[in-house]
Write a structure and sequence with these properties.
alpha+beta; four-stranded antiparallel beta sheet; 7 helices; globular; binds adenosine-3',5'-cyclic-monophosphate; 39% helix; Alpha-Beta Plaits
Length: 139
């Protein structure tokens, strides 16, 4: 059975332009329940490790710089089939291609500064959730 929670980050572009509350409210209106959240600025090393799967890709350096440039908001939400539901709710990586009503269509600036990250599989939701939260913080 699919996991009933997933991991997400409100990225520095959205957090620092005051969109965190609007994004959380948008997700809550769709039935996501906030289970854990924190505000922090990633070190360069933490950003490199979190995005290690993208190491070697042309955008990796820019991604690490951006994600460690200012505070962000890692969080965990609960919903049935959570990973799939949240990926649907946030929309395509590039806001120009994101469907109407998705978080990225509403709040993202560009493919790099795209407002929100969401885990792309149950396995990554567990791994990424553990990267930022103690077990006791989440479910
Ligand atoms: P995210 O879901 O956080 O996972 C990897 C991130 O790399 C992605 O969102 C984008 O913000 C970022 N990125 C920057 N440039 C690109 C690109 N050209 N293709 C894909 N992802 C990119």
């Amino acid at each position: 059975m699919a996991l009933n929670y997933t991991f997400s980050i409100i990225k520095p572009d959205a957090f620092n332009s005051g969109k965190a509350g609007k994004i959380v409210a948008h997700l809550e209106a769709q039935g996501f329940v906030l289970k854990a959240a924190r505000v922090m600025q990633l070190s360069k090393k933490q950003a490199e490790e979190f995005y290690a799967v993208h190491r070697g890709r042309p955008f990796y350096g820019e991604l690490v710089e951006f994600m460690s440039s200012a505070p962000c908001m890692p969080f965990i939400v609960q919903k049935d089939n959570a990973v799939h539901a949240l990926r649907d709710a946030i929309g395509a990586t590039d806001p120009a291609e994101a469907a109407a009503g998705t978080v990225r269509k509403l709040y993202a600036e560009s493919k790099g500064r795209n407002a929100i990250h969401a885990s792309d599989s149950d396995e990554n939701a567990v791994r990424e959730g553990r990267f930022f939260f103690a077990e006791a913080d989440s479910l």
